[in-house]
Input
Amino acid sequence: MADARLTMIFGALLMLGIVLLALRWTFGTGRDQPAPHLPDPDDPTGDGLLTEVSRVPTEAAAHVLRARLADAGIRATIGRGGDAYRLLVFPADLANARVVVGQTRW
Output
């Protein structure tokens, strides 16, 4: 009787150890993996494929210019650059975006 109980406890501990190792292997912390690349905020090329078209002081002005670009069929996004808001477009749309941003509407 005592031998069976000891075998059952040993088997349960062995199974628990195997499960813990499997969980550790599956959901481990991954310390041996490289850290994700963090972009440098001071890098002027850190916008990926986008190019800056304009820089405005307020968020409202950035949204107005983005709406103008959207009306002209130009995709744009707003980014934050220090104290200013940056309007970013793809390089293929840069010339047209400068024309649209430079227009005065009354």
Summary: Strands lie at 51-56, 76-81, 84-89. The radius of gyration is 29 Å.
